[in-house]
Amino acid sequence: MLELLAPTTGLRDAWLRARDDWGPGVHEDGFGIGPDDDVDSPEGFAAWVARLNDQGDPARPLPDGRVHATCRWIVEDGEVLGGIALRHELTGAAARLGHIGYGIRPSARGRGIATWALGAMLDEARALGLPRVLLVCRADNSASAKTIERNGGVLESSDRVLRYWIEL
Questions:
Q1: In this entry, which stretches build a coiled coil (predicted)?
Q2: What are the structural domain ranges in the chain?
Q3: Residue 45 and residue 65: Cα distance in Å, rounded?
């Protein structure tokens, strides 16, 4: 059964297997990894997980350029299949990246997992009171475009990136 779970150190080994599925040096959308995050050591991983979970707390101040975000891991039977993040506002880089970013590990693609996860995260966006959300994907990422469209995405503009709005 698929679940959206808050990041946890208890899934470190499963998360590392998911990261390894992408391959070294590949950016995994939806996980909120920054260039300075050390996810290989247990201590670094724990600090990263704490930062991800703190980011969702609107009472906590964030460093410049960051916005509050709800981060979730897509998990099935104890295996991390991907990640999805809901940015609570469209300021700074979030205005370019959109409200929601997600990624599914290569070995889990083609099963409808992203469509399911996006639908579940839209429920979280509704709970935050957002009237609509912006999603952005590369123009050559037809799988992501289809995922967004299956969840009601309406294309606003296209160039090298596709910008979709979903009314909530």
A1: none
A2: 2-130
A3: 22
